[in-house]
Amino acid sequence: MIYEMRVYRCVPGRLPALLKRFETATLKIWEKHGIKQAGFFTTLIGESNQELTYFLAWDSLAEREKKWGAFMTDPDWLEARAKSEADGQIVGNIVSQILAPTAFSAVK
Predict the structure, then answer these.
(1) Reduced to 3 DSSP states, what percent helix, strand and coil does the chain have, rounded to the nearest 5?
(2) Residue 108 lies in a domain
(3) What distance in Å separates the CA atoms of residue 33 and residue 47, rounded to the nearest whole number?
(4) Which pLDDT does position 76 carry in this prediction?
(5) Mean pLDDT of 56-70
(6) Residue 21 is part of which domain span?
(7) pTM of the entire structure?
(8) Is residue 44 part of a domain?
């Protein structure tokens, strides 16, 4: 199992719109494509409180490429993203890292 950590840095004031998009649209589309989330977090203390950090669990890089590619081109996703951004851009920057658990990690 490998994990992907994604950090979305929102345009100021737009974090609520991002959270709503995940809760009402994105997660349903991920379910359709078999994308497994491993946790979502907002920043209480840190550089910015306008961030959403989440983790995805993948069996392999090949699985990630296949499923993420299908999600990103899904017409339902494209429509949901456009609709959620009708009032303006939500995300200013996305950082993604692929992580492998160590032998002593509680998460495998």
Answers:
(1) 40, 30, 30
(2) no
(3) 33
(4) 98
(5) 98
(6) 2-99
(7) 0.93
(8) yes
Over the stretch 11-46, which tens digit does the pLDDT of each residue have? 999 999 999 999 999 999 999 999 999 999 999 999
Cα–Cα distance measured from residue 6 to residue 56, given in angstroms and rounded to the nearest whole number: 8
Other C-beta atoms lying within 10 Å of the C-beta of residue 14: 19
Buried b / exposed e along 75-92 (16+ C-beta atoms within 10 A): eebeebbeebeeeeebbe
pLDDT tier at 108, thresholds 50, 70, 90:
confident
Q: Is 91 helix (H, G, I), strand (E, B) or coil?
A: strand
Measured between alpha carbons, how far is residue 36 from residues 48, 56, 97 in Å? Answer: 26, 6, 16
Residues in the chain: 108
| Measured CA distances, 5 to 14, 34, 37, 71, 79 (Å) | 20, 17, 10, 17, 25
∠ CA 9-12-68, rounded to 5°: 30
Indicate if the pLDDT at residue 6 is higher than 90: yes
Domain count for the chain: 1
